[in-house]
Amino acid sequence: MSWTTDDIGDLSGTRALVTGGTGGLGFHTALELARHGADVIITARSDAKATDTVQRLHRELPDGSFEVLALDLADLSDVQRSAETALERYDRLDLLINNAGIMLTPKSETTDGFELQMGTNHLGHFAFTARLWPLLRSSSARVVALGSIAHTAVNGIDLDVLTKQGSSRRFHRWQAYGASKLANILFMRELDHRVKTSGAPVVSVAAHPGYSSTNLTKTGPAVRGFSLPGAAMHQVSKIVGQSAAHGAWPTLMAATDPSLTGGEYVGPSGFQQLRGRPRLVGMTAAARNDDLARAVWEASEAATGLPFDAA
């Protein structure tokens, strides 16, 4: 029998944090978790957008519990500030969904000088998770990473991209995005390995949304202004892709299915994992490479200046 949102149990008393909850997958993930009783925190870079999102969420679910935490994943000092605020504000955090991301941006850098997609999608979440670790561990939390079909477009990661000098290879938007999504999956797997080795009571899993119609395809390519390829891709995704609400299903299954014990990857069950009900799916050989996972972890510690002892 295929998974549906009816399989989500009662989440009353559960506190969930969804990065990038102001639209698309994050919005629908936050809404469905709250619909099942969770107290939900969403992160946002813009106060105005956060206020508008909470109003939209309450229109959908008037009795839902929603809070906002300011967070800019492309600025490691802001990641630190945001995590410190969370540690002061909350006594537990049962679920961390590292959902936020950018896609197919032109060659750009984060505030700290890292390639923008890798710096935002991976390093920002690595640092945020590391700084929240005491709360996550004491709460016996579940951490969900958001992967992508795009991780299949690359067969490895040039570790120089995790340094400020960056990779010497020619920049390609798709490869850069694919590498950042591969890093997300490798981070999930290495975190799973480390918590199981140490006995830490945390579950680390990942999911991908298939081909979903969200604003990522429009806003990412237009980071430096209007992008005709981005606009065209966005229109195609609205026709071909599944809705953002359906795209959130794999994340919701990864976040709530009690049978998942760590290291699993959830995606759509349809043709080429583009759409459909969620199920366990496979990863590429690069995503299963234990040596690469360990190397990316260590390079991420060096990049962020954060020793991450997941014990």
What does this structure look like?
The structure is a single chain. With 311 residues, the protein is of the alpha/beta class. The protein has a single domain, classed as 3-Layer(aba) Sandwich (Rossmann fold). The chain contains 10 helices and 8 strands. An 8-stranded mixed sheet has the order 3-2-1-4-5-6-7-8, sandwiched between helices. Helix 2 links the parallel strand 2 and strand 3. The model has no long low-confidence stretch (mean pLDDT 93).
Would you summarize the structure shown here?
The chain contains ten helices and eight strands. The chain has helices at 24-35, 47-60, 76-89, 116-138, 173-198, 216-219, 228-240, 244-247, 249-256, 290-304, and strands at 15-18, 39-44, 65-70, 95-98, 142-146, 203-207, 265-268, 278-280.
**How many domains is the backbone divided into?**
1
CATH architecture: 3-Layer(aba) Sandwich
The helix/strand order is EHEHEHEHEHEHHHHEEH
The radius of gyration over CA amounts to: 18 Å
Overall CATH class:
Alpha Beta
Main beta sheet: 8 strands, mixed
Which topology does CATH recognise? Rossmann fold
Structural class by helix and strand composition: alpha/beta
Distance between the termini: 36 Å
Global mean pLDDT: 93
Question: In percent, how helical is the residue content?
Answer: 40-55%
Shape assignment: globular
Strand content: 5-15%
Unreliable residue stretches: none
